[in-house]
Amino acid sequence: MAMGQFAYANNSNRFLGCAPLADQPFAVAGVPFDGVVTNRPGARFGPQAIRSASLMLCDGIHPVFNVSPLEHLGDALDMRLPNASPLPEVRRHIEAQAAALMAKHHCVFLGGDHSVTLSLLRAAKAQHGGEPLALVHFDAHCDTWSDHFGEPSGHGTWTHEALQEGLVSAAHTVQIGIRSSGDRAAREHVADQGGQIFTARALRGLDGAGLQPAIDAIRARIGQRPAYLTLDIDCLDPAFAPGTGTPEPGGMTSSQVLTLLEDLADLNWIGMDCVEVAPAYDHAELTSNAAATFVWTYLSGQVAKRQQEA
Fold first, then answer.
1. From the CB of residue 258, how many other CB atoms can be counted at a distance below 10 Å?
2. Out of 52-61, 92-101, 238-247, 267-276, least confident range
3. Which of 67, 70, 89, 209 is 20 to 30 A away from residue 34, measured at CA?
4. What angle do CA 244, 247, 248 make, to 5 degrees?
């Protein structure tokens, strides 16, 4: 049996029912790995669930951007990964496959646990000139711990590692939705390094025009630096996304996330991932539907932007 041919590594279902990846400008790829979660496993099944949920959107024209990404998108299916190797080996495989995709396409990756983002950032930085990237990070958790319950790396350390490696610029890093427990050094690490944090508490009750000050601040901080978007589905309150490994009450609404994605579509995005969807804990596909809609919105915004620039 060839590497990666596991039952959870889906290689038939495609996002929006789009064509297999060939020379389309945009690509979706699954990263079915959840080997370093700290609570409930199952995010390896996330790519399948997000793709399945996306099929409802396949004939949809986005109501804000007035486009569909369908004709501009190809699905690379799921990465072929080992699932019992040490994390550095898994990350090596992810980075190599991501680099090959990024060389030809604007990519969205479907996780998978959040540890996969470090590999994706390594590939993205190399693809975009080697300068540290801007980072917009939706999450309930800061992911800036210096170790992973005594282990050197995991899904809660990647932001710390990305800053330490110079993959992202601290001054151009924004975290949104943070609210989990943790010591001050971890919670405030991004701010201490010169970045900005919008906690879920600070965003309570804000939506629509109420989010404009945050949108303006993010746009001013990021500027036109090449920017990577990573969206942990647990940024949402468990009422909107129960199907995740580490749910945290008091989170963002789907409406808040969509407002931010729509209004920040004009940034210089170079890629995105959506991670930590764990379908085994979902109810009525709430979580996978939210994830699919977020990815669809991001792609629609990028297609509309390209059409305006053409």
1. 16
2. 52-61
3. 70
4. 155
